[in-house]
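note to self: dont lose this again. the chain is below, predicted strucutre after it. 205 aa total, dont forget to put it in the shared folder this time
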Amino acid sequence: MLEYMRLGGSIMWVIAALSVLALAVCIERAIFFCRASTDPEKLETEFGRALATGGEEVAREVVTAYDSSMHRLFRAALVHWGLDREDMQALVEQEVRKEVYRWEKNIFILELVGKLAPLLGLLGTVLGEVEMFQSLHMNGQISAAAVTGGIWKALFTTVAGLVVAIPTIFMHGFFMSRIDSVEETLERGGDYLVREHFGAKNETK
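---
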């Protein structure tokens, strides 16, 4: 591996650094996604049952039992349970945006690495070929072995760039699709909170 890095030149080390960065972001985001996820239907059922049987105090125990994004949304709404419908709707929308922002944190790095890695690989290949042809010109002797050997070395960076870019772009797409799903789930949870709160109020009038 070190021999390939040496043959590829300094750009290989830049690509390697980008791969480490992308891997670190993937691991950090995967851990966050696991911790911030929950079963929304189960939470809604437990929350509604708690409000109906024990009121806000019992419901508070439900929303503080875990620290998922949905739990934080429900917790914020319960803290401001006395708001009118318009203000509650605005609060819910604000909390949804806040949680989506938490899910999107550092995802842009994967997109950046996915775009930069193949370009750096191509740059390394072009620079390698320029160096090879310059060397052939200076030596004044051209052989098939020298040309193919030089191109073979120059292509290392292109291969490395693609090897880094392909899984990075895949993970970026996977994370973004997960974020879209979570955003929709949070919005549905916000609608549930508004219906639960003001539907219950209407029933008591």
